[in-house]
Amino acid sequence: MERRRSFPDVLAGGIFVLIGGAFVAGSLGYELGTPLRMGPGAFPLLAGVAVAGLGLAILVKGLVAGEVIAFGPIPWRAVAVIVAALVFFGFTVRGLGFVPASAVTALLTTLASTRVRPLTAVLVAAGLTVAATLIFVVGLQLRIPLWGPWLGF
User: By residue range, what is the domain housing residue 14?
Assistant: First the structure.
């Protein structure tokens, strides 16, 4: 009987195991606490173990019962636009503020697809900006200025 291996599953599982392992290793530098009084390292430890466990399951599935799938062409345009959007956000969030930096970042990432129409991209960017503002600034109360000094507010 021929064993089929899925290279994409093995690769994805390995990446998940590495990311989960990094979270576990990073969490060990913090106090873990007890199950009733968890410390700052407890959540990253649990999240890292969960991600590594899922990655291990994907990796084993790819080795044992995977489908033989070849990678298609790499969408370099999308990769470049998404990386540029993240770099843009990192460099401008303090100067522009959270709302404009989030809006431009979301707009750039939606334009990474060749099938998205401009009106749809603007609507998605507006929705993501509102959602991110509600989650991070209102809900989690992060102290990020909504409008930055570069805009004169």
Answer: 7-64
